[in-house]
Amino acid sequence: MPQPTLQPNWHPEQLAARLPFLRRRALLTQAVRGFFTARGYLEVETPYAVPTPGEEVHLSALRTERCSPRGERETLWLHTSPEFAMKKLLAGGAGPIFQLARVWRNGEGSDLHAPEFTLLEWYRPGAGMADLIAETVALLRAVLPPVVTCRGVTTDLSRVETVTLAAAFARHVGADLLATADDAAALAAQAGARLRPGETWEDLFFRLLLERVEPAIGRAHPTFLTHWPAAQAALARRDPADPRVAERFELFVCGIELANAFVELTDAAEQRARFVADRARRHALTGAPDWPLDEALLAALEHGMPPSAGIALGFDRLAMIAAGADRIGQVTWLGGDALPGA
Predict the structure, then answer these.
(1) 130 assigned to some structural domain
(2) I need a surface site. Which of 198, 289, 316, 332 has the fewest CB within 10 A?
(3) Strand partners, 249
(4) Is residue 56 in some structural domain?
């Protein structure tokens, strides 16, 4: 039996199916810009092709090359986040800033992932975690209806839940996350989980997070999952009240991970040490090609970046929630179920 031929993603029927979602995305873009402009933020645009794309251990970057008029060649990478560049602007005195940035993460693809997507990222000097949570709630309520439904899950924005990761593990896993830190066998025993061959504490942590915690949160109401183990927050400041954890949160709406936020680390020496440690872990896990440390960022931190909080929010996922879409391809202009590369 012959297989049906998929239409290219520009085909009128393909585009017509996406247009209601895309029109909602366009309105969302306008509303987001209006929200931040009214709050005194400055919209910025930073380079996409950079010498250092990021230091996240589990992300893979796309490589490119720049040729000068004299024929000189320089290896560059498509950034995985505009974070490093925006922090340099903070150190330079830009004040509150936001950006709708295209970013790239190689090897990703699913109903909720794409190798090229849009991040809404903003930074507020002088803010702490509670300030950023309050501002994020204000954004959601300003740009979304009071009740949203996406991928079969309905979420009421009238109230939000804030829970520490340790409390979430106690509730949904039955384990003391911080007491078992770096002890995979102890965490497995408390969780009633079978430790897989070669599975590290970090591996098991993420498995339990994905299998038991995330499916139980951010459904009836948005959930802010706060205070992550310090090892899982390389760009966040340690909590002064408990250095075992960092001032990081993730936001879940309609059961979807929507945002990741930090009270930013501003200590250049500590940031350098964390970068070096992350690079060693990335090499051990992937053997991926390397790039130079972002010495310009470390110099900016040394110069004096103001105490700040910052957040990266998946704008395509926000558009999915706003439009009630099932797949990220429905809210991208040349997405959808189409021929590869069409």
Answers:
(1) yes
(2) 198
(3) 226, 261
(4) yes
DSSP H/E element including 281: helix 268-286
- Residue-range definition of the domain harbouring residue 225: 12-160+221-331
Rounded-to-integer distance, Cα 190 and Cα 243, Å: 23
H/E element, 277: helix 268-286
Instruction: Report how many domains make up the chain.
Output: 1
One-letter amino acid identity for 168? A
In a domain, 60, yes or no: yes
Specify the CATH number for the domain of residue 30.
3.30.930.10
**Rounded CA separation 230/165 (Å):** 12
User: CA-to-CA distance for 322 and 42, rounded, in angstroms?
Assistant: 24
Residue 165 CA to residue 176 CA, distance in Å, equals 10
pTM of the model: 0.93
- When pLDDT is averaged across residues 22-37 and rounded to a whole number, the result is 98
Rounded Cα distance, 160 and 73, in Å: 50
Encode pLDDT of 286-330 as tens digits: 777 789 999 999 999 999 999 999 999 999 999 999 999 999 999
Token output for 60: 């893979």
- Following CA atoms 68, 74, 78, 82 in sequence, which dihedral angle do they give, to the nearest 10 degrees? -90
Residue 32, classed as helix, strand or coil, is helix
Q: Distances in Å between the alpha carbon of 214 and those of 168, 208, 219, 319? A: 9, 9, 10, 20
∠173-314-243 over CA atoms, to 5°?
A: 50
